[in-house]
Write a structure and sequence with these properties.
Length: 225
Amino acid sequence: MSRTKDKGDAHGIFPAGSLAGVPDTPNGRLASTSVPIHPDLAARWSPRAFDPGAVITADQLTALLEAARWAASWGHRQPVRFVVGRRGDETFTTLAGLLKRGNSYAHAASALILVCADEGEDERTALYSAVDAGAAIAQLTVEAVSRGLIVHPMAGFDVDGARSAFGIPDGVRPLAVIAVGMLGDYSKADEAIVERDSRPRERLPLEQIAFGGSWGLPIASPNSD
């Protein structure tokens, strides 16, 4: 089966952003879906151009963490932990210094959040701690979109450096750093960022990822009823 990607031109509902211009707002690149989905989910994407002067308020940051805290949790273990820095404080500076070069754009974010998972004492618990962390990141991200903020999760950071800098105990795994802020001015952004953020949004078509009856057999089309 070929792995063709949905570039946003297959559906008439919620067309994805095009290369005609770089988005001016976080809601300028809606996902292309076969049926309508929640607007904040359709509007979610991961910009790299942050406004270096934007300030996230304590209430905004708390709201994002509350959204993450109330994500579904396997066995009610609640293994997800966060290290939170706002631009200008020591935690933010440390987290920014741990990012790989390719993620240096996040130095302009208003906040950086290190997401960790307590992996517990067995392989199964460790597996589902990562599932919980993913759910928490997703809910944090959608809450941010609902508040006009942008979010970019990143895996490129110094994991061992994070352990050392923040005294993260054994058995707790640093998984990702999330950059949070406001969309920046693309006319002042690095050309590489403009090029990457101008690319069309793509996902594999639903028939290549959702099966019914047996593996590889697509579920019925939503238009087949």
